[in-house]
Specification:
Elements lengths: L2 H4 L8 H25 L29 H5 L6 E2 L5 E2 L3 H15 L6 H15 L1 E2 L8 H11 L1 E2 L1 H14 L3 E6 L8 E6 L4 E4 L14 E3 L1 H11 L23
Parallel strand pairs: 3-4
Antiparallel strand pairs: 1-2, 5-6, 6-7, 7-8
Helix pairs in contact: 2-4, 2-6, 4-6, 5-7, 6-7
Length: about 250
């Protein structure tokens, strides 16, 4: 399938495939709801207040600091130590289960990596609600809470995308805004044709329209020139060379 076809709306797919996709999405929503109820039993610790950019009004949104469960009950809560040595309130098995549950609902066996990346983009963009705060203690915590509670900020969208893309063996890296009054995070993704920017976080309706799936440095610069606020400014020296040929017609 050509790159252009990947960017077409799903309405062009055969009707029986659309029905199957809706059934998968319903099963996925039930799975995520159950996971969210389990996650709600553990109150997570947020990072220190850091202003983040978001879709509400383009202004700074402080990150809330949430008390640990042990602070609420007075009882210590034993952390789960992951393979990377970081202690979290969920296990690696629980994390993998949530990620697998999402992918089972959005990925088909015959998809190319570019199509898989688009499915991840659509899911994260459409199913996580922007609230202006998140757990930024590490990306796995941000991804787990984003996928189970279905809310967060730009770090959540980055982390959830990273979790799903990594599970699909799609190369991806973190990108952080350089300069500006607010922080912003997004992904750099390589589906085999070079590195492109990938930002599943919604933007304020006051900003120019921009389809932020697999876009180039030039497209990032053009959007930033219109939007201001150093929106997609970043330190290029920290990243591999990016592709120059546009994938999308932004």
């Amino acid at each position: 399938m050509s790159r252009e076809r990947v960017l077409e709306e799903v309405s062009y797919r055969p009707r029986h495939l659309r029905r199957e996709r809706r059934r998968r999405q319903r099963r996925l929503r039930r799975f995520l709801l159950a996971a969210a109820l389990l996650a709600a039993l553990a109150v997570y610790a947020g990072s220190a207040a850091v202003p983040m950019s978001g879709p509400e009004d383009g202004a700074s949104h402080p990150v809330s600091a949430y008390p640990l469960a042990s602070q609420q009950t007075g009882q210590p809560e034993p952390p789960a130590s992951g393979e990377d040595g970081i202690s979290r309130f969920f296990s690696d098995e629980e994390f993998d289960g949530v990620v697998s549950g999402v992918l089972d609902g959005i990925i088909a066996e015959d998809m190319t990596q570019l199509e898989q990346a688009r499915a991840v983009f659509d899911f994260v963009h459409d199913n996580i609600r922007y609230t202006g705060s998140s757990d930024k203690s590490d990306w796995k915590s941000g991804a787990y809470l984003g996928l189970t509670t279905q809310q967060g900020d730009c770090f959540t969208y980055y982390a959830a995308s990273r979790a799903l893309l990594t599970a699909l063996d799609i190369d991806n890296l973190e990108v952080e805004r350089a300069g500006g009054e607010t922080h912003h995070f997004w992904n750099l993704v390589n589906c085999g044709d070079g590195w492109y920017h990938f930002d599943a976080c919604p933007r304020s309706s006051k900003l120019p329209e921009f389809f932020s799936f697999m876009f180039t440095d030039q497209q990032a610069e053009e959007f930033t020139a219109e939007a201001g606020r150093c929106y997609y400014d970043f330190d290029s020296s920290l990243l591999p060379r990016r592709a120059e040929k546009p994938v999308t017609g932004n």
